[in-house]
Amino acid sequence: MRIRLLLPVLLSTALAVPAFAQSPAPGQPSEQEMQRAQQGAEAWQAYLRRVAKAVGRSDGARDLALAALLEAQARPHDAANESGLDPERWHAEAAAKGAGDLITQQLLLAAAMVGDDQALGNAAARRWQALSPGNLAPLMHLGLDMDALLDAATRASRNAPEPYPLQRWAAGVMRRHAPTAAEWAAFGEGAKPSADVNAAVWSSSLSVLLPDYQPVLRACAGRAPGAAARADACRHIAGLLLAGPQTVLDERIGLSLARALAASPAEIATLDARRRGVDWRREQMAELAKQDDGPGGAAAFARLLADTSVTSEDTMARRMLAEAGVPAEPPASWQAPWQRR
Fold it and tell me: The whole model's pTM is what?
């Protein structure tokens, strides 16, 4: 069971196309494969609806927000035939009861993003920002135009998306609602994992909270209109992203921004050395992830997620690599993908 989003959207494009009686083209899924994928997706949706109903019976703000997220992940389904699902109430009550709780707001933001509701997402991001003033992370989800975002970013003092406290809490709840043997068999996912592993891997679906940095990268590009005037704001964002990044994406984006704004070959060399390390660890982790039961597999992820000393994706990767006997830094002879071109 590899670390990935468990709710299947596999073959979603193919499933939207009518199946033809002829043999499939090479590399395309067969009609039987598409049917299995459809059945697995429907089984996952049914499981998530079951858990949403159970969690939604709670009066706790986090539970209600999680129920709203699970319902959004379980779509599409026939809401008219579903008793016990009340995502609008769950969202509203969670927002009111959890106004002072950061994890509640992160869950509500995730639910809005999965459900493609920008207004609800912006509201949750604003509440997160109010709870964490000076934090760049919620600003990235506010739907601001670029000038407003860059202006607000100059007043940010840190970048703290806090993914692991959120994932740990969510995993703790999902552990109590593990799939039954019959449900797991219907998923078509192979051997049933432990409740801890299933919960931890599901919690990784909360990576939906990663922001879209493409507009910022375009705005800060040297050839973009107005980029020169925005250089200070772009440099400030890069500094925030590189100061103890909690996600690999933040570090990679920070390196890209900093390199585009670098003023000397020596500065570029320093950034490239750090970038080589990031790329090396990503490449080695990809190899470890191919071994389901190895030090980079789902069981190791579940164990390390429960360890509160693991506060960033880089720390997680370094711990897994150390357990596998793989150095965290690349040998001098190794070339990063961008060096091979």
Answer: 0.87
